[in-house]
DNA sequence: ACAAAAATGGAATAAAAATTCCAATATATA
DNA sequence: TATATATTGGAATTTTTATTCCATTTTTGT
């Protein structure tokens, strides 16, 4: 930056800093831009971390952090960090204020926010419950089964379709061959027709169990294709078809159930499978 | 302290620490008692301060602070300070710590159960963070925008496709007309072509932003179709196209980010929209 | 009141962290 | 394409911060 520069900036509030970062962002050199993004995405890390630690996480050199601070008009990194710390200090009273605001009979803000709280709460509860219901040995067996398979067929419909769609993304990223049965044009059975014994099916279904999923899983089991199932109770139709099954009971809020625990479990299966394959 | 002591304490949560401090308080020597009181009255100062600074404010010697920490069973002041910092950071310090421990220190194999813990932890962390980043007024505005729309077009690709797919399910259940842009046959632009001013677009995109999503959202904005966006930073290309945008920063574990917070937010939007319509 | 043990203050030392500096690389300008 | 200019990486240095140590004071138990 040819030294100098800096003109009149160095905002002393977090909001001011964010504004400056946003306005300058496009004109910044690569590494500084990287830091700007990182700082806004991980403000607590900047508040508490050390130059070395933050630099590593953000993928830059320590010196770049100091330069970054100076280019914004601060004395050095420590000065910049102060802004982030001040903001965190303020957050406690802020939060209390916000809760107070929530109760105010101003109507819809309140309601919208409590909806969000409700869904977040249900998700957190589901995650917590899962600790008790998924047994490590079963999980390990499920991973083994998937790891041995040539191709993994992903089966799930309606409410749980998002989970299985995400599996397709994750397996792809991990280099594991997987086929998403998406039922386009109601071609589910045909999409699964090529599956053989050396493959495996990962099926997910919760009450009210979508008939397609149960039927296709049963068909696969009859053809001796290994089936790994994620479902919500021992009464699920998937259980009879499955070689290994994992139990997940999602909590609900209003009419809608969370999917958070299922996602976490699905991701663990995907990464576990990829790791297992890398080993052997 | 005749050296020794310490027995089995060193609580790793703030609440545990407070309990210990209160129970021991009466039996403590003068200066340590002074510090116990100070620490509980000025926790943020302990979280952010330096040994010298805190010592001065509390009216003791720096060495006393170190002694204080050790008498509670910690390695030293820095260790004690960590407890205070974790508390300020969020209410899930255990998760953060656990995540740190789980992150494979290179080549180290993480077994199945800790994978699951890791993903569950990332999800919980994301949910908790969302409390801070989504502002109730913005959420209410987003809901209003969607409630006014005739048809809602759902836009999201790759990693976030599951979220938008779930929105399609939820809106359908709730009797809200919504169209999922699923890009089958790369027909995304055509699927969105019928959208008009009286409609609205709900778009989701996180880093690395899928170009289609940004492009289609920008196109919609140019045609004066209201756009509600869920994204992860102010730098997102969606921000420029959006009439209202909501910020969600998902935590990651290994190479994969959680989607839990996004799901909770999407569900809140869906239910909020349906309720708003039912009202008037 | 006396000895023994504990607690304290403060300087000395060690450890950790921030900052500076310069050579190497990349980017823009003519 | 050549030259100037900006950017970056990384080691060296300085500064800050935590910790240790020991002499002195205070407290405790007899």
From TrEMBL, chains A, B:
SUPFAM superfamilies per the UniProt record, alphabetical: Homeodomain-like, SIS domain
UniProtKB keywords: DNA-binding, Transcription, Transcription regulation
InterPro entries, per database record: Homeodomain-like_sf (IPR009057), HTH_RpiR (IPR000281), RpiR-like (IPR047640), RpiR-like_SIS (IPR035472), SIS_dom (IPR001347), SIS_dom_sf (IPR046348), WH-like_DNA-bd_sf (IPR036388)
Protein's name in the database: MurR/RpiR family transcriptional regulator
Residue ranges occupied by any HTH rpiR-type domain in the UniProt entry: 15-91
Domain SIS residues, every copy: 142-280
Alphabetized GO MF terms: carbohydrate derivative binding; DNA binding; DNA-binding transcription factor activity
UniProt xrefs under PANTHER family: GLUCOKINASE, TRANSCRIPTIONAL REGULATOR
Spans traversing the lipid bilayer: none
GO biological process, one term: carbohydrate derivative metabolic process
